[in-house]
Design goal:
14% helix, 8-stranded antiparallel β-barrel
Length: 166
């Protein structure tokens, strides 16, 4: 029954149910999706990696974003398969007419804190500085090609969806 639920969960969110999974990944996916499902619509997968993150995402919520929170972000991945994933970003935030840019670090699932996206200035994280802002990633969705198509993220008390534009 558990495998049937996982297959239905994976098929329902556009992921190829035939892909290879890590031992225990099904259980993590079900637990993680139940966390994300109560706050972001749909079914969500765990975040074992950020492969396929590069692209532009926009915030999709019924209510406007609070002042100072991101409304759109573009990620450019650094070459290589390092964990955490790092690269540069540009983003718009609510209430600002200035495009922000800098470096990011995308941390996969971690038993202590979960998955997270940390944003910093242009040299971050290579220069050893601390992030200026952190969003927790409650789950993700992948399209049929394996790219990330949406992220369910949390900053403060209100989770929201970042949907891939291109």
């Amino acid at each position: 029954m558990k495998k049937l639920m996982v297959v239905l969960l994976l098929v329902g969110c556009g992921v190829d149910a035939q892909r290879q999974t890590e031992p225990g990944e099904e259980e993590v996916a079900v637990v993680q999706s139940s966390l994300g499902a109560s706050t972001c619509p749909g079914s969500w997968l765990a975040v074992p990696s950020y492969d396929g993150l590069s692209g532009t995402y926009t915030r999709t919520t019924a209510l406007p974003a609070p002042a100072g929170e991101m409304t759109q972000v573009s990620f450019a991945a650094t070459a290589g398969t390092t964990m955490p994933a790092t690269g540069s970003y540009s983003r718009w935030v609510q209430g600002s007419y200035v495009l922000q840019f800098g470096g990011y670090s995308a941390l996969p699932d971690n038993p202590a804190i979960g998955a997270a996206l940390a944003f910093g200035h242009t040299g971050f994280p290579q220069d050893g500085s601390s992030p200026s802002e952190v969003y927790f990633v409650l789950g993700l969705k992948r399209n049929l090609t394996g790219k990330i198509s949406a992220l369910c993220v949390l900053k403060g008390g209100t989770p929201f969806t970042l949907q891939r534009l291109f």
